């Protein structure tokens, strides 16, 4: 489960997102960070049972830093107000499809797949879907997938066929995604429940065939 230390720190940080407060309360951050790292270590172990590409990862390979990159944004808030971890072969900066946990006092969710893939990665995945359409449809229409996620994230979907693919392809809609992402919302109560790790295992196991399908294509780039 996610500890009280983590949530209390994030809630306070939302109200005091400045370096003065952060430095004065660094002990709160360090305790929350330690708790989240322990939690992520457990998650690595759990995912590793069914996805061996994750089992070798270290905690530092998965957790995102709390400092924000403020160089190219008008929002100069120095810190993220969430804890996030991405589990994929090669770690959080990997091009491979993976599993993501997002802990924010205003938004809790489990998700995964491919978010903002590079153009060559996206083209490879689309090609894999084009050539193995029925296999992909079987995955996203499976009972476990639909129960956990409903369907794919629709944001940013193309209005027409992507370049290099025939417009008359019967399942052209499957190739129009810019991201191949799924997500399941959580509540503060659920993430603090001892059963949260069971929820993670169930959700990410349902995600595993989806990720495996895409990673098969990405491995051949």
- Output the helix-strand order: HHHHEEEHHHEHH
Bulk shape: globular
Give the strand order of the largest sheet, numbering strands 1, 2, ... along the chain: 1-2-3-4
Distance between the termini: 38 Å
Mean pLDDT: 97
Q: Any idea what the radius of gyration is? A: 19 Å
Q: Count of DSSP helices? A: 9
Q: Give me the count of strands.
A: 4
Structural class: alpha+beta
Number of domains: 1
Describe this structure as you would to a colleague.
With 221 residues, the protein is α+β, with helices and mostly antiparallel strands. 45% of the residues lie in helices and 12% in strands. A 4-stranded antiparallel sheet has the order 1-2-3-4. Helix 1 (4-15) packs across helix 3, helix 5 packs across helix 6 (133-140) and helix 7 (143-149) crosses helix 9 (196-218). The protein is globular and about 60 Å long.
